[in-house]
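JOB MANIFEST
job_type = single_chain_structure
chain_count = 1
residues = 226
[input]
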Amino acid sequence: MKVSETYIQGLYKVDDKEKARLATINATIGKTVYDEDLFMFEGKEYRYWDPYRSKFAAAYLSGMKSLPQIKEKSILYLGVSTGTTASHFSDINTHGIIFGVEFSSKVMRKFFRLSEQRSNLIPILADARRPEEYSSFVLEADLIYQDVAQPDQATIFGRNALEFLKSGGFGLIAIKSQSIDVSLEPEKVFSNQIKELEEDFGLEIIEYKTIEPYEKKHAVVVIKMP
């Protein structure tokens, strides 16, 4: 086994039996979040990061070169769900904070329990369409990460970016074409969403890539606030 650093601080590539995998150093030793495998390497415990359950991991393994840094950041996570990806962010962002916004109270209960184990996770039960609902809780963000399966994905991201994202800060949005318009080809949906982010909200597109085979009809877009 070989464990090596990637261009993202705190994210590691594991070469094991001719298969490249990703991992983070476990911030809660001995505990898993979604039944992921743990392993020891040079005295540290690592958690494998499953790209089939995380758009960020899928984007890295799909070859994206401009994914934003996570370490020591203030992160606003829209659509945090039960915290699969956020838990790996938590491993990396030990001296930062992750605000996790989730609309479903049932799902939020699971994320809340996770936040009790990880002090850098802050659960917020709210509608990401209404950033004003949590503007008194969220600090200015270095990074906004969005994974929301709604038809107005670009609008949701744009409103939150204008409200919270620092000048020079980065965003990452996972676009799900089937949640927006099943009658259009995915590439057309992605193009329309990117155009809205640029023209309606003045955001700069840094990189864009589909993430098959990890997720079908999905794309990840890296964004920068001018």
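[summary]
The chain has a mean pLDDT of 97.
The longest strand covers residues 165-176.
exit_status = 0
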